[in-house]
Specification:
Elements lengths: L15 H6 L7 H23 L6 H8 L3 H7 L3 H12 L9 H18 L1 H14 L5 H26 L7 H21 L5 H14 L14
Helix pairs in contact: 2-3, 2-5, 2-7, 3-4, 5-8, 6-8, 6-10, 7-8, 7-9, 8-9, 9-10
Length: 224
């Protein structure tokens, strides 16, 4: 998201009045626009963490960012779109340096760090999962985010299975279970200060990596 050019939802002619009336603001447009979006996203994240989704308005987030409310609407059409942008902004994926089982172990270690050090991000994520059940904008955004995370885990599972010369078919199911378990660990870590996240993630890693899937038996002809 950072550093990308702002994509206009409508043809440029629709926004001609913006260009004509805001030339000083739009000098070095891409850099200024990216900087402004970053300020808005960082401030919005702080306010969402402090107030919660339901109690945070566009006005609150604009004031925290030190920008006009209209400028927030210029970049994000609705509160829902802004909040989804915040989620994407604070949940960047970390590329693994190794593949196979070593890569999976590294990913589990990163998960432990994320659960310990990103509580505000995790809280926002869990809140938005609840909101997604009844919000037609947040719902598809959260669904796509979950699918992306699950696909990331599936890719790691496929690497492990390939390293062991096993059928990669179970990778999708493994990813579904692992990601569901991580969400469960995340919820428990948020509501129970005595919950041991490291212990839970270590157990999940041990169970996931010790699973053995036998190759599919060849089909027999004639029932033999």
């Amino acid at each position: 998201m950072n550093g990308e050019e702002f994509e206009f939802a409508q043809p440029l002619d629709t926004y001609r009045w913006i260009w004509l009336n805001n030339q000083p603001m739009l000098n070095d447009h891409s850099t200024r626009s990216a900087d402004t979006r970053t300020r808005i996203l960082e401030a919005a994240f702080r306010e969402l963490g402090r107030r919660g989704y339901e109690n945070t308005s566009i006005k609150d987030m604009a004031e925290a960012a030190g920008v006009a409310q209209g400028l927030v609407h210029y970049h994000y059409k609705s509160k829902q779109q802004l909040v989804l942008a915040v989620l994407e902004f604070v949940c960047r994926k970390v590329e693994l340096g190794v593949e196979g089982e070593a890569g999976a172990l590294e990913a589990f270690e990163q998960t432990k760090t994320m659960l310990r050090e990103s509580r505000d991000t995790n809280s926002l994520y869990i809140q938005l999962i609840g909101v997604s059940l009844h919000d037609s904008v947040i719902g598809p955004g959260v669904r796509d985010f979950i699918r992306s995370e699950r696909a990331h885990v599936e890719g790691i599972a496929r690497q492990v299975l390939a390293e062991r010369a096993l059928d990669p078919a179970p990778a999708r199911g493994i990813a579904s279970v692992v990601w569901a378990a991580i969400l469960g660990i995340m919820v428990q870590s948020l509501v129970d200060p005595e919950f041991d996240t490291d212990e839970a993630v270590d157990a999940l890693a041990a169970m996931s990596l010790s699973a053995v899937y036998a190759p599919k038996a060849p089909e027999t002809v004639g029932g033999n």
